[in-house]
């Protein structure tokens, strides 16, 4: 028993010794570390979120996050797992649109409050405070009233409207439809109408007859025709077993006789433009399309742009593993086949005619533009004045009696006659129901343009009957305010 007690005493001394050594180690060697932990429990840091900057329209009106504005303004949401390392858990950042594009400016700089608290978590005092810095105000070129009007006119139909100032590239309205409510995104994720998709920038569509502006300009500039050149409308052309008809002949069984360039534009005569494509050849036609900005992003200060496509023999051989035929040139000359454009590209394209030859990069935020007339934003294309005059005259005749854009015949606003220059388009696409996309792109007043309007309605039918009336309502609204 005595021997056992002896072993017990030595074991007890050993345990006490170990605890004493550990206590000494904690109190002496690790005192600084544990004092820091205690201080950290005593010190509390709070993020002071900065007030987010507002986005204004061109008149200083605050643009609210709504279905009229959702695609262009975007929305703000909590950081994702992928973004948390750049910010902090719970931070709010721009997700799409201008809110994302200019997030760094709009977000400002968060502040910090360092507080002292007791063991129960009660705040004793504020040790240090760094005030948040409010986000910048973003001044845009958008016209809130015009934006709302365009959205209402689309009435949730699939399509897009782009409205700009042709003289400097300012985007006055940019609408994609159907819209979406930024506050309830989950309901749109599986919607077959793709309301989250920005059709104005990312939608790629065959331009149809609006493309004839390119074909006409190219043929005039390359010297293949002049204002006196006349081509006979034969109703149809045949190349081997393939037939290429004019829309007027196919629909009504009628021919239009001999036409020159302005009349051919006014009537959107396919035979005339098939022949221009043949005179030019596809390479020259494709080069001119690219010169006008088609086939590449416009460079607008918003993400989500598509490139579009201007096909040529090299592309067809590489992608489709086939050679280029005369029939391919015919259908390209009228904006069909494999040509794909976006609504904003066509708006920029017709803006070249409206601005007397300037290719302007479209933009939304005014503060980003120091000198809109600089080469960086507006480039003067090498197009003869007489070519611009002839094409403009043809586009004016489109909107006059005898042209294809009948909604603009005798167009008046507040009893004032306003002349419009524009082009309708009815574009075929692969569709089981044989529907067509409806286009109208034009500018007004024709002699001194201040506004360019481009309307696309997906699968809606003819441009004259669907897109042109909507464009007329937009121009009526615009001129009625003046």
UniProtKB/TrEMBL annotation:
Subcellular location: Cell membrane; Membrane
Regions crossing the membrane: 7-25
Coiled-coil features, chain-numbered ranges: none
Domain Penicillin-binding protein transpeptidase: residue ranges: 159-475
Gene Ontology cellular component terms for the protein in this record: plasma membrane
InterPro entries, A to Z: Beta-lactam/transpept, Beta-lactam/transpept-like, PBP_dimer, PBP_dimer_sf, PCN-bd_Tpept
Record keywords, A-Z: Cell membrane, Cell shape, Cell wall biogenesis/degradation, Membrane, Peptidoglycan synthesis, Transmembrane, Transmembrane helix
A molecular function (GO) term: penicillin binding
Penicillin-binding protein dimerisation domain location: 69-127
Main location: membrane
Pfam families in UniProt: PBP_dimer (PF03717), Transpeptidase (PF00905)
A single BP term in Gene Ontology: peptidoglycan biosynthetic process
Membrane topology: Single-pass membrane protein
Annotated PANTHER family: PEPTIDOGLYCAN D,D-TRANSPEPTIDASE (PTHR30627), PEPTIDOGLYCAN D,D-TRANSPEPTIDASE MRDA (PTHR30627:SF2)
Protein name according to UniProt: Penicillin-binding protein 2
Taxonomic lineage from the root: Bacteria, Candidatus Beckwithiibacteriota
């Amino acid at each position: 028993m005595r021997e056992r007690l002896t072993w017990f005493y030595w074991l007890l001394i050993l345990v006490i010794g170990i605890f004493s050594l550990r206590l000494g180690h904690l109190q002496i060697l690790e005192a600084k570390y544990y004092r820091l932990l205690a201080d950290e429990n005593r010190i509390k840091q709070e993020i002071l979120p900065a007030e987010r900057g507002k986005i204004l329209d061109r008149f200083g009106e605050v643009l609210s996050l709504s279905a009229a504005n959702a695609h262009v303004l975007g929305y703000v949401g909590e950081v994702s797992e992928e973004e948390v390392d750049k910010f902090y858990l719970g931070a709010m950042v721009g997700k799409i649109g201008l809110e994302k594009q200019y997030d760094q400016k709009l977000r400002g700089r968060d502040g910090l409050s360092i507080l002292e608290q007791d063991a129960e978590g009660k705040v004793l005092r504020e040790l240090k405070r760094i005030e948040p810095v409010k986000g910048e105000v973003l001044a845009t070129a958008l016209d809130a009233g015009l934006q709302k009007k365009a959205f209402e006119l689309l009435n949730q139909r699939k399509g897009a409207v782009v409205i700009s100032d042709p003289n400097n590239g300012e985007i006055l309205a940019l609408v994609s439809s159907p819209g979406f409510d930024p506050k309830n995104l989950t309901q749109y994720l599986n919607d077959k109408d793709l309301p989250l998709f920005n059709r104005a920038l990312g939608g790629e569509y065959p331009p149809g007859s609006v493309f004839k502006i390119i074909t006409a300009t190219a043929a005039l500039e390359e010297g293949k025709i002049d204002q006196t050149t006349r081509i006979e409308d034969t109703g149809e052309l045949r190349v081997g077993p393939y037939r290429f008809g004019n829309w007027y002949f196919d629909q009504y069984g009628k021919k239009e006789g001999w036409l020159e360039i302005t009349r051919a534009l006014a009537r959107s005569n396919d035979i005339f433009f098939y022949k221009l494509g043949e005179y030019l050849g596809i390479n020259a036609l494709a080069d001119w399309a690219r010169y006008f900005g088609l086939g590449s992003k416009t460079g607008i200060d918003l993400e989500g742009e598509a490139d579009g496509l201007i096909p040529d023999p090299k592309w067809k051989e590489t992608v489709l593993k086939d050679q280029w035929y005369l029939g391919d040139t015919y259908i390209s000359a009228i904006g069909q086949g494999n040509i794909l454009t976006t609504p904003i590209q066509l708006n920029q394209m017709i803006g070249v005619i409206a601005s007397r030859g300037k290719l302007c990069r479209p933009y939304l935020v005014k503060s980003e533009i120091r000198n809109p007339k600089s080469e960086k934003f507006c480039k003067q294309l090498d197009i003869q004045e007489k070519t611009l005059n002839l094409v403009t005259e043809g586009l004016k005749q489109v909107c006059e009696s005898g042209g294809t854009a009948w909604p603009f015949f005798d167009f008046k606003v507040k009893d004032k006659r306003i002349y419009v220059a524009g082009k309708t388009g009815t574009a075929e696409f692969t569709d089981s129901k044989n529907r067509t996309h409806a286009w109208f792109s034009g500018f007004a007043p024709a002699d001194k343009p201040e506004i360019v309007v481009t309307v696309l309605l997906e699968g809606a039918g003819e441009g004259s009957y669907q897109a042109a009336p909507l464009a007329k309502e937009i121009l009526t609204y615009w001129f009625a305010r003046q």
